[in-house]
Amino acid sequence: MAHEDDPLEHERASWKPSPGLAVAVTDPVSNPGLPPHRERMTDKDPVAMRRAVRTVYTLFYLSVGASIWAIAAYFLFPIESGRIVDIRANNLFIGLGIAFALLAIGIATIHWSKAVVSDTEFIEPRHATRGRDATREAAIKAFSDANEESGFGRRVMIRNSMIAALVASVAPGIVLFRGLAPFSSPEHPEAGDPVALLEHTMWAEGMRLAHDPTGEPIRAADLTLGSAVHVIPEALAELSHSDGYLEEKAKAIVLLVRLLPEQLVESEERKEWSYNGIVAYSKVCTHVGCPVALYEQQTHHLLCPCHQSQFDVTDHAKVIFGPAARALPQLPITVDDEGYLVARSDFTEPVGPSFWERH
Q1: Residue 218 banded pLDDT, cuts 50, 70, 90
Q2: CA–CA dist 172, 177 (Å, integer)
Q3: What is the mean pLDDT of the chain?
Q4: 117: closest CA among 161, 147, 156, 150?
Q5: What is the C-alpha separation between 344 and 274, in angstroms, rounded?
Q6: Considering only CA atoms, which of 214, 227, 307 is closest in space to residue 259?
Q7: Are residues 166 and 250 in the same domain?
Q8: pLDDT by residue (tens digit) across 14-42?
Q9: Where are the alpha helices (DSSP H) in the chain?
Q10: Is there a smaller number of Cβ atoms within 10 Å at the N or the C end of the chain?
Q11: pLDDT tens digits, one per residue of 254-298
């Protein structure tokens, strides 16, 4: 029990809440409504509106021009020439053309929405979505209102220029597909036939296997058990880029692997294709042509990093997993009088993806 002269009791008895302290709110906050509408310059000045419309369709037509330039650059700077200057110019000017075409479409669309499309605010109440006739009619009305507000149906220059820009922006990509189709010429009549192009490589009887990219010949005795070596034909080092170095290398690249001879499962016709447990297989994946370069030493599997196809090196590089449809082509090898690994012949089947027709 508190004493009569206790100062704390007097303080408690005299305490009252300050008016500046928190006060319980019982009334909900009223809706402030929309802020006052500020008219745009294009809403007040017809000249400004016409200028904005011209800006929009001019940007769309500039996009058309950029798309046409990208197509022209593809032909003006042909990568087939093999010259590094043409390859760089091809990538640069096609990229700039496509980038500017898409950028112009984006800027024009934003300017159209900000300066030309109707600037009226409205509130759209939420309601349950139903498939009734009234709902469908409301949807049709919404499209009609959008057409009226955007001016898509009335502003012919904007509409036509936008359609032209969108159609033209796709054209460079379509034209670039031409590079995937080989074309024959008087100098190379076989170029129009993918089978002929992929059926023969630089490998020939007696051609030494060499390290990629140095071109140094490989001795069989220098290969350690479990090693995997990236290989090119020795004669490839003599070619320049203008002579087709990249094209020949893309077809002839090989992965050389050394295992124990007893680990190899070899068919009767391929028993002479390896040498003392050393086998050579094309590095070009038979799915879509990616380089198969990852070797798992413990499992003796080759892995394609693009789509995870796996091939068993011990058993004719057969497919054991993934989308590849056939085994990697094997290069028959042996050694010459100096102990260097050499090819017995070219590949006996076309290298590369399985979607090419084969004899």
Answers
A1: very high
A2: 9
A3: 84
A4: 150
A5: 10
A6: 227
A7: no
A8: 655 555 555 555 567 887 777 788 888 88
A9: 7-14, 41-44, 46-76, 84-111, 133-150, 156-176, 194-199, 245-252
A10: N
A11: 999 999 999 999 999 998 999 999 999 999 999 988 999 889 988
Residues 216 and 274 in one domain: yes
pTM: 0.54
335 shares a domain with 302? yes
User: Are residues 219 and 175 part of one domain?
Assistant: no
Number of domains within the chain:
2
How far apart CA 281 and CA 255 sit, in angstroms, is: 5
CB atoms within 10 A of CB 58: 14
Distance of alpha carbon 103 from the chain centroid: 19
DSSP string, 4-56: TT-HHHHHHHH----TTS-----SPPPP--PPPP---HHHH-HHHHHHHHHHH
Residues 205 and 175 in one domain: no
Do residue 337 and residue 244 come from a single domain? Answer: yes
Residue 145 structure tokens: 């209102």
For 255, other C-beta atoms within 10 Å of its C-beta total 25
